[in-house]
Queue: 3 jobs
Job 1
Amino acid sequence: MTAEKLLTRNFGRADSHTLRAYLESGGYTAWQKAQALEPAAITEEVKQSNLRGLGGAGFPTGTKWSFIPKHHTGPVYLVINADEGEPGTFKDRYLLEREPHALIEGMLIAARAIRAAKGFVYIRGEYVEPWRRFSAAVKEAYDAGYLGRGLDVVVHRGAGAYICGEETGLISSLEGKKGWPKVKPPFPAIKGAFGMPTIVNNVETICHVPHIINRGAAWFASLGTKTQGGTRIFSVSGRVRKPGIYEASVAITLRALIYELAGGVAGNGRLKAVVPGGSSAAILRADEIDVTADVDGLRNAGTMAGSAGVIVMDETVSIPEALMVVARFYAHESCGQCTPCRESTGWIYQMTKRIVEGRGRKDDLDTILDVARRGAGTTICAFYDGAVGPYISYIEKFRAEFEALIPN
Amino acid sequence: MSVGNDAPGAWNRPPSGRAGLADPAPRVAFTAEQLAEARRLQSLYPDPRGALLPVLQMAQDAFGYISLPVEEYVAGLFNLSPAHVHEVVTFYTLFFREPKGRHVVAVCHNLSCHLAGAPEIVARLKARLGIEVGETTEDGKVTLQSVECLCACEHAPMMQVDDRYELGLTPEKVDRILEGLR
Ligand SMILES: Cc1cc2nc3c(=O)[nH]c(=O)nc-3n(C[C@H](O)[C@H](O)[C@H](O)COP(=O)(O)O)c2cc1C
Ligand code: SF4
Ligand code: FES
């Protein structure tokens, strides 16, 4: 079930970030191959591979690429989302530091498919070492002539704001504004960065592209489930014996991931809950982890694969306290544009805090649920829905634990 | 490139009523070299304004923090209103609008770090530094922040000290790291 390693296959090499190491492992051969393919053929191959976006939304990558208007004559941009900020997720940090040339090669191929001559890589400002490593790789790629002959890459650093991970917030930020998400439609593929058609993809999504071109869509698709191909990197943290990154088939079950790869549950050793897709994913109880971790498997389980940040909690963890920490995050990171999001995230944090401090009121839980439900789906971006997932699921699944903290 | 502070317009002058708000700071300006770098950055984007964040980062490195005069100076480089730049500066957590310590210690308080003992780490930092979160030590050495997930949760609890990630913290390790700061 651990499948063959694609993205992390070179991580054992201390010099895996260098061009030499990348070339030795077959690097840039997919780019050679892709140059002989028509752009539409590349997109079709990626569609057939069932690659789905690994940044959070799980959208089919080839389909997204095909949305670029066919008869557009102006510039098209490729934007790489390296603003990794979803709590519990750390895979893109590894990819930038240890396999930067895979991202560059993937960008070359993707840019050919969508006819982009310029790519931006938006790296979160706190990632200093990943930025250095990736920038050094870009320089190597220019010197070796991979970049600068049809594709230019600009490495752009963020300045601290979770919301810039949302693709239209990221575009606003790239344009030199505060990172306010934009109303969709128009989607970025029609009108994105600097008003031009733009494809935004996650680092890991694009790192998969060379493998698909080299070994074929059918092979890639066969590694996963019927509706999602390939492997992905799971970031596992919290109360597990071996926290870290694990590349596995998207069809792995959460149970296998936690017990076979991550060494099982730490703390008191007994599992209480799992957040499977970064903090914005709804929480699962210990008896709900016999599900596959692909996009549709987790959607059917009432949660989401998101960024595959798996946070594990043993029985000694206080769920109300965990929700308070999560609610503080959403209150802090709301961009403030939409009233339901700005107001509810602040109030719900205050309420979870007073519950944890033993000052909760009888109707607090129902108020939180009511407020959360009414705001869901009404906002400009999916940030608020990402906050609602935890609010509702933590309370519904562990209600007794919250009630026990509320004085009579 | 057509924009520049060498092409001043009304937008580039501090509104007179605002002068009292700012420090009586010396004139803010990049060196010729820094200015050339700012222009280079601007040339990388289809619209030079795309370089606003990187140039603000440069300005912060050059001047220590982003005061109102710095905002106005940068606005001039971009043909933007100081209000736009102010809006941007206040939106992002990595921009400092007041002098910061020689070192910035940003401890993660998000979920995985919390589960691994972040509250204890925060308490240790506060006690050893003798300051609250958000404050700077009196000798100007350290500014302490408590921040959201820095995405190194596999090594929780963790913190960032300037450019470096410090991983797998214990209270003792925190002491050693603080002692190493000059
Ligand atoms: C609040 C919020 C935060 C997000 N943060 C990230 C992020 O840090 N990295 C990322 O790749 N995608 C993030 N996304 C998803 C992006 O909006 C977008 O779907 C993704 O970058 C597209 O790339 P993909 O199709 O390759 O996944 C976020 C979405 C939301 C709503
Ligand atoms: S949902 Fe929240 S984060 Fe998204 S645009 Fe609205 S206020 Fe901003
Ligand atoms: S929760 Fe602290 S680094 Fe992610």
Job 2
Amino acid sequence: MEELRDCFVEELSRIKENDDRLYVLVSDSTSTCRIKPFMEKYPDSVINTGIAEQNMIGIAAGMSLGGTIPFTANAAPFLLGRSNEQVKTDVCYSNTNVKLAGLNPGFAYGSLGPTHHCIDDISTALAFGNIQIFAPCDPEETRQITRYAASYEGPVYIRLDSFKADNIHKASYRFTPGEAVVIREGRDISLITLGTIVHEAIRAAVALEEEGVCAEIISLPSIRPLNPEGIIKSLQKTGAALTLEEHSTHGGIGALTSEIILDNRLDCSLKRGGVPAGYFAEAAPREVLKKMYGLDSDGIISSVKEILSKMK
Amino acid sequence: MKNPFALSAEETGEKAKKIRRNIIEMNSNAGAGHTGADLSETDILASLYFNLLRYNINNPQDPGRDRFILSKGHGVGGYYCTLAEAGFIQKSLLSEYLGSSAKLPGHPVRQKTPGIEFNTGALGHGFPAAVGMALAAKKTDASYRTWVLLGDGELEEGSNWEAAMSAAHFRLDNLTVIIDRNTLQLADRTETIMALEPLPDKFRSFGFHVIETNGNSPELFLKAAAGAMKTVGRPSVIIAKTIKGKGVSFIEDQAAWHHKIPVGDEITSAIRELE
């Protein structure tokens, strides 16, 4: 098992070995992004802007226009929330080559409460123009997405969870921007999810299998770009979808899936799992919140049964 | 790299007059624009583009060029007319300002206009980006200088003070911040809306080398800039005292002319005053 942030930092070190243009900007978030190993190797390539996230993003944009490749790394709630206009204008609209890593998104900060939750970042980033949005689910995918972000010329947002995980993907897996990844094939329902909730979905699918329900799992590591074909194919096959995300049900991948269903006139039942639109998540431990919002494996199993029973 | 014109202060002043005439004509033709802001900054922009900034007109993206950001993006009219005068864009393009072709929009867009480094319009964004440009130069041993022009009312945005703190912290002596201190913002005097004074003391306490000068005199402004460029170990700010609407008597120093344009006889009167 590996912590995804460590994989991110390790990969940054690897990239820096071959590309001196890479710099990491933190807003006093050195421990949040576990940057120490990189910092020990490249002390002059980590820039701490202090607790000033708006300035950090502006500086990153300016640095990219000075010929460097800046990665920013700070807590997700203080990225697109605090620096909304800087991301919109300095990064997206100015088309600067800035990579934004939003750490510990969703309700990873649990009991610290809604000031520290980030359940609106996908919605916000999707509403901006000109930014690619990624959410890795395991160590291998984290490394590949980090590598891709550094090589891509333009704005990137990586929704990077704090999570220790085993690899779901094999070493032969190749992250492809735009691709909806089938993690497990099924016929009865499509579980569409992202990031670390993919692991909950797998646990749920294994348990459901024993009860004769065969769930397909689609992971969305690439929220933008997104080629909808993989999702369409799955929904045409199963006719039922459950979306799962540590995000508001407004504007996240649940909303994205409902748009795909409508745009393509698919005959498909849909339940959107997440924090109900219009509400903050409670200030409670993450595992409690996962249960509360039906995002743990038990909750996923219940939702699947509910959807399938309604379809009968 | 050198400034391709290297004009004297007097010649720069003549360029500024020409730019001002173009501003009046362009804004009147467009039927919109921020005339007061455009005329306020003209001598500063002329000093930058015809004397101070080192750039290659045949390759505006030359990595060694000096960087300039117009943070007060609403002053884009003065900026376009300066860029046209310097040869970055065709003068004939000025007739498309704010027009349906969307080639010269109401705020600077770097993807559309050669010479523009950064998209602004929302206030308080240019200074942090300029810090980033100057910091990148320090990190990569590049010799370009970074200049950023801010409106004085714009200083009410808190992001500027985050940037000021970091510019001094990173000892960015390759950065010069210019404040277009015309004392007027959209609604009224800056000191009535949200007092900025004692502005020099504020910047001094943030660790800046502070230079106060007349921003409508190329001669004095160029002297101030020379002082900024000699400063070692800390960033400089030039508080350039200007008159909003400078050069046209009936536009000067009036908040109402923030985004008003001359019409009818006003156009000929304005041009006559600028001959």
Job 3
Amino acid sequence: MARVGVITFPGSLDDRDAARAVRIAGGEPVALWHADTSLQGVDAVVLPGGFSYGDYLRAGAIARFAPLMEEVIPAAKAGLPVLGICNGFQVLAEAHLLPGALMPNAEGHFVCRDQRLRVENARTAWTSEYVQGQEIVVPLKNMDGRFTASAETIEELESSGRVVARYMDVNPNGSINDIAGVTNEAGNVVGLMPHPEHAVESLTGPTTDGLGFFTSIVKGLINA
Amino acid sequence: MSGTDNVALALRTPEQPQPYKELGMNEEEYQKVRDILGRRPTSSELAIYSVMWSEHCSYKSSKVYLRQFGEKAPKTDKLLVGMGENAGVVDVGQGWAVTFKVESHNHPSFVEPHQGAATGVGGIVRDIISMGARPVAVMDSLRFGAADAPDTRRVLPGVVSGIGGYGNCLGLPNIGGETVFDPCYQDNPLVNALCIGVLRHEDIHKASASGVGNKVVLYGSYTGPDGIGGASVLASASFDEESQAKRPSVQVGDPFMEKLLIECSLELFQRGLVEGIQDLGAAGVSCATTELAAGGSGGMDVRLDLVPLRDPNLLPEEILMSESQERMMAVVTPENVDEFMAVCARYEVPATVIGEVTDTGRLVMTWHDEVIVDIPPRTAAHDGPVYERPVAVPADQAQLQADTPGRLPRPSTRDELRKTVLWLAGSPNLASKEWITAQYDRYVLGNTVLAQPENAGVVRLDDETGLGVALALDGNGRYTRLDPYAGAQLALSEAYRNVAATGAQPLAVTNCLNFGSPEDPGVMWQFAQATAGLADACLALGIPVTGGNVSFYNQTGSTPINPTPVIGVLGVHADVRRRTAMAFAAEGHKLVLLGATREEFGGSEWAHVMYGHLGGLPPMVDLPAEAALGSVLITAAQETLLSGAHDLSDGGLSQALVEASLRGGLGVRVALQGDPFTELFSESVARAVVAVRPEAEARFVDICQQAGVPFTTIGVVGGDSFTVDGLFSIPLHELREAHTGTLPNLMA
């Protein structure tokens, strides 16, 4: 069974939810602690949402220096599948595993809404269960979700198909080009501002559209 | 150290004048302290007594009335811990228990809306942790001045960002609540925050310091000069011109530290390292030490100079009164101290042993080896003054009740009725609160089954069995102003109805009683009436009060707010998968109105919105009818007979149809039998409107008949408009615009 690690940083909030999503997708969630120095041989890693270190200084800026990140960074560069959700995306950006930065929402306050997205890249380790262009609805909830990068970087992301998902209907935070998620060149590291782990059960989510991110990794690892 | 007042000095200088009046004590209370101690108190002792005997901490004006919640409590085996502890604990089955409580943070939220509201959330969450429970959700009940008043644009966004900023950062879903506008709250906004926590039966923890030789550990944030005197000065004095000068005494919250405290405390409990625990809220170290000592072996020695400080210049009196947030105090056996410290270190939570449990019957505190406090702790924690304040019916009460809404012109033409539906749907109190609730995380923890704007918030407790709870928080200041006895019962009725509408069985009650000055006999009469009404209604409905909070002095000058008891009802779902949601989203399902409609407009939303009128009597209370309606809604949910259900309350049938229709994105077509104005807008109690699954119609009629609940088929779900046959039709997009545009426009 695919073993997917979920890192808990001080102030991580959606770690249990990410673990539940892995379980529902058929994988085995493995709790990882920020201060440890071993990835326990997991097959993939999720950096969950939350407010690590209270978002003090800058979202993700302190968690990026956690001891376990010393393991995550080289492993990700070597191909370990890594998904950063919301605050996890911010940590990955701070760690330069993904390009760009996440700035405070354009309207200046926290936004929680059911957000329609278009999956733009169904070839990453985390999106293979979707089809390109598929529209999904998952919760979005954040304070600092405005994706920003240099014009050069945006051009590169767009031309190489590295925008993973895009906001539809409304741009909830002022992200450039409605970008909701991006991937690295190799497609193993994905950062996503919306929360697919909150759309895995019809009882508690607006849809079950988010499950695909987790089944993608679980099935991908089994097939690999 | 010289310069610090101590017991030896107090004995030598019995006549030294002391600032008891400035600390909010009267002469009689000060003399009582001297009698207890047999000498003058030291300044540290005076600090302790002044905060512990403040209205806020001692409930000295309300105690004689609050007793009846225990005396009149219905017999139940569901209450594992009753009133008196930080929060009551209710058995919800399958070995699970739930604790919940609501508290006010009204005055701080007026002075500094963001921090005032944020620390209100923080305080109630620590109350829940200190029962050994994992907090799983929050709710809030908010009241502001007129929606278009300039100050509302200062207070409301600050309060909302404070609640959101703190709760979101803690990872607690916000699952519901209410927001009400009324000019009477102009300079006295109400911010009542509720938290609910979950625990296994065997994990209940109590606030007591038992076991001689056990260590007293202070953990969490360092102590700073936050809210010094806040409990007795800020939280109990009315607002006046000096409020601005009091700004520094509002506390500042650090939700990140609170999140660490939650996780750290739960691991401490799980490892069995905690003998007794108390959160530090109003009155900080004073409250925690006196209450822990009074609840346990009876004595405690504390070295106050060991309290870790953010500001090294703090005096012992200031340390005792500091309301620095995110602090807890635990009693730990000596052999467990190392492991306790290691757990705290893992979470990067500072922890310090500051004292020890004794059997002396005295709370003794030293400051650099000098004894600065030596008191019997019960005298501060439990044996404070109790007042039976004068009570008198307000002079204008009879006149108010005589001024019925019967004289107000009513809409009669089709167009007037149509416009009234739209006006009400877009009026600030009935308009969509999405502008507010979109700033709250309702998804975190992954167990939110229903959240605002649903009838009640519903959270799952157990993934396997589907066990869950429902919570609703309701109040109506206008009804309570017109008749405080009935007003409290109407608030309870509405919360009960809301919980039952989701299909949950109501189990227990919490309350936050927001009133004016207890020194005003008229206010005290309102309080006496409201508490009696609530206690009687809880007995009638068979659900006990498990705890609560009183907030007095909500007034500006001599004008009190409308008396506003906010009532929380907790219900249980054996399986949340069988809950009923409020949306009418199934084309063709029949709409059934449950309950009887009378011509009742006293205190109604219609009279308020159209005429700013408040007079007459509120709707008649009918508790047996509420119980019968509840039984129908619960049985119907268990048998999944309904595709949607919405309670009727403010704004009557019209508003209920608007909300359920917009929620489901489908129209409704109804036909009315009687006077359309009364049918659409009356606020008679014990009513709900439901959409019945076609195959379940016969069974549903059976249930209604058995329960004796009047039922009328009024129409059908479908189409894209709100249509009343022969009268008017309003396209959903027009309704949606009216309903959702109000708050964004006001706050833009």
